[in-house]
Design goal:
Elements: E1 2-8, H1 18-24, E2 29-30, E3 33-40, H2 46-58, E4 62-68, E5 75-78, E6 80-82, E7 109-111, H3 116-124, E8 130-133, H4 140-155, E9 160-166, H5 184-200
Parallel strand pairs: 1-3, 1-4, 4-9, 5-8
Antiparallel strand pairs: 2-3, 5-9, 6-7
Helix pairs in contact: 1-5, 2-4, 3-5
Length: about 210
């Protein structure tokens, strides 16, 4: 099995992005699966072009994208991507898309097709906080969650994809009083556990991962 793992470059004025930093530190092989690491730009559409090219070149079985969710206290495995860009801030190309579809010909949403509950449980088994997330936002992280699924559905049938959000690193919150963070080593351990679950889980476990709001 091949797993393409993508991580964004820094954005929003930050000097570092834990997404690409954690991806860089992943082992080259996890549970027998080859890990292919890819840095992607925090730019709508261009990010998908880079991923599309990497899929064509490497033919991975799974595409797992990692993104920073500053303010979240745990590792959050995304359930769904929606077909809208509504950017609160400009992306790294300076474009601020508002209320436009990611793909005009696509459905309203895509559920990811990874074992999200098993991934959360495996991360938690390492005593690392994790949960299912039911919103990937409306910035480039959601753009990639939705967009990669659309690319797979229309160009590469049978491939699996999903998205994991991770917290800030400690050095990012020195000037952000009260903001949660997680060390890079713990994030890497969590992502490794999640990938192990992807590799060895044929059918997702049936446990609650919902929320009331």
């Amino acid at each position: 099995m091949k797993v393409l793992v993508t991580g964004f470059d820094p954005f929003g004025g930050e000097k570092i992005n834990p997404a690409i930093e954690s991806v860089k530190k992943l082992p080259d092989e996890i549970a027998g699966a080859q890990i292919i690491k890819l840095e992607i730009p925090t730019v709508c559409h261009k990010s998908l072009d880079v991923i599309d090219a990497a899929i064509a070149e490497n033919d991975p079985d799974v595409i797992l994208s990692i993104g920073q969710a500053g303010g979240r206290p745990d590792i959050t495995v995304e359930r769904v991507g929606i077909n809208v860009d509504d950017c609160r801030i400009p992306d790294n190309a300076g474009q601020q898309i508002i209320d436009e579809p990611v793909f005009p010909d696509g459905p309203a949403a895509y559920f990811v097709n990874l074992p999200i509950k098993a991934m959360v449980a495996r991360i938690q088994s390492h005593n690392i906080p994790a949960s299912v997330s039911n919103t990937a936002g409306t910035f480039v992280c959601n753009h990639v969650t939705y967009g990669v699924r659309h690319i797979c559905e229309t160009k590469y049938p049978g491939k699996k994809s999903g998205f994991i959000h991770i917290p800030y690193l400690p050095q990012q919150v020195i000037d952000k009083k009260g903001m949660p963070s997680m060390s890079l080593d713990v994030i890497v351990e969590a992502l490794t556990a999640a990938i192990e679950a992807i590799v060895d889980t044929d059918e997702d476990i049936k446990v609650t991962g919902g929320a009331t709001h």
